[in-house]
Amino acid sequence: MFSVVKKSKKSAARLTELKTRHGIIRGPFFMPVATKAAVKNISAEELVVLEPQIILSNTYHLMLAPGTPIIKRAGGLHAFMQWSGPILTDSGGFQVFSLSKFRKITEHGVQFADPSSGTRYLLPPEKSMTVQHELGVDIAMAFDDVIGYPAEYAAVEQAMQRTTRWAKRCIAHKKKIKAKYALFGIVQGGTHKQLRLESARELVKLNFDGYAIGGVAVGEPRNKMKNILNWTVAELPETKPRYLMGLGRPEEIVTAVQHGIDMFDCVIPTREARHGRLYIWKNPSPAPRQARGTLSRKGRGTREGTFYKTINITNAKFAKDFSPINQTNLKQYSKAYLHHLFKTQEPLAMRLATLHNLEFYLTLMADIRKNIQKGLL
RNA sequence: GGGUCGGUACUCAAGCGGUCAACGAGGGCUGACUGUAAAUCAGCUGGCUUUACGCCUACGGGGGUUCGAGUCCCUCCCGGCCCA
After folding, report:
1. In A59-142, which ranges are E strands?
2. For residue range A111-170, what is the model confidence (pLDDT) as tens digits?
3. pLDDT at position A265, please?
4. Chain A residues 137-166 within 7 Å (CB) of strand B
5. All domains of chain A, ordered by start, with CATH?
6. Pair A182, A139: CB distance under 8 Å
7. Are A353 and A336 in contact (CB under 8 A)?
8. Does residue A40 reach within 7 angstroms of strand B, measured from its CB?
């Protein structure tokens, strides 16, 4: 179901193929985030045009609304949201972190209180496995205990070890319910080498279908990421997909690919689109062949890597900028027009910006694959 | 013509003698967003400057009272409503 098609000679980057019941995914790839069964602001038809290969949705949020009985009646998540490609769901583990104010962790599982209604939901690892099975997803994630940064070493260790114990329960329960999805384990351990190694080794013993690196970009200094990648990837089998969860900025993705990561997801392109930030190629014909330089920043405070920049389309200077938004899917619309749509709060603003940023991210991935193929990355 | 209520920063709108360059909202400007509680959140928004518990200019105009006035008094101008 998974194969490495080509290994780079310049880095740990690799071209991969992942077969799922809903299609083959060529890696390295990026999964647009559709937490609540929708990539915010765009329809399935608009999404398909962008060729994302696979999308990510969320167990916890779908369990709350509309709930699995409704999605089962609809014929599964694919039919419900009219997306016929592969779907990966996060287990709800990230909500242990992002909704930390509203949950209690016990060894049995996590109890969440819905912030809007106060309703309590119990989510043990087994429930997460069952829900993902009922959603009918292609790839399910193990239910993990995500801890933020900074945190006491002992707390990070405890969360990591609990993640391992829960991982075993996830595997066992998947077997019990005869779920057909591929199940990925998630390495935790914060910024500590010892803990990352222990986590990876224990999970590899369990023979998951793929391995994710979780608990990254949860507040730790950015320069820690490379270390985490180096330590962890070295422990993971070459024959299984590697997934860096929640990342990231374009240059972070390029770096991670060079460290041997195959899969990504991130809220950045869609969320920042809604907030008016657009990702722009510096060179109209994008070229991550300059990828080696992509981590160098122009200076303190600037976010740009060397091959792209970001703009805030709401800035006053774009009011009279009639240049096209991009050279591809929105070449007929000017920046001045998009600026106007944002300033007047027309819903079309967010839709166009989302289409633009996703196109950027998916083009980035396509170029990364091309460059690996050509031996440039 | 008489009566009455009101005129505050880009807009709306608090303010009822000092702690008011003036609450709040909108607008404007800028920034942040990394397995989405996120169409969200944060800062700035009279001028100047050594950006400071600093100096100017400001609450319709003018004149008073007072140590001190956006706040009290007189008067003029303008607007709403009521009566003629």
Report:
1. 87-90, 103-105, 110-113, 120-123, 139-141
2. 999 887 889 999 999 999 999 999 999 999 999 999 999 999 999 999 999 999 999 999
3. 98
4. 141, 144, 146
5. 2-266 (3.20.20.105), 274-372 (no CATH)
6. yes
7. no
8. yes
Residues 6 or more apart from A70 whose CB is under 8 A from it? Answer: A80
Q: How many other β-carbons are positioned within 10 Å of the β-carbon of residue A209?
A: 17
- Residue A248: asked if its preceding bond is cis (omega within 30°), the reply is yes
Query: What's the CA gap between A98 and A22, in Å, rounded?
Result: 30
Helix axis angle for A224-233 and A250-258, nearest 10°, is 30
**In the sheet where A14-20 sits, what is the strand order?**
A2-7, A14-20, A23-27
Q: Is the pLDDT of residue A94 over 70?
A: yes
What global pTM score does this model have?
0.93
Identify the H or E element spanning A211: strand A210-213
For A358-367, how does the pLDDT look when each residue is reduced to its tens digit (9 = 90+)? Answer: 999 999 999 9
> What is the C-alpha separation between A181 and A158, in angstroms, rounded?
28
Tokens at A190, concatenated: 């914060």
Q: Are A172 and A143 in contact (CB under 8 A)?
A: no
- Both tokens of A107, joined, read 């060894």
Q: Annotated catalytic sites of A, by residue? A: 90, 265
Residues 273-302/A with CB < 7 A to strand B = 274-277, 301
Q: Residues A187-217: pLDDT tens digits?
A: 999 999 999 999 999 999 999 999 999 999 9
Q: How far apart are CA A74 and CA A83, in angstroms?
A: 13
Q: Is strand B in 7 Å reach of the CB of A214?
A: yes
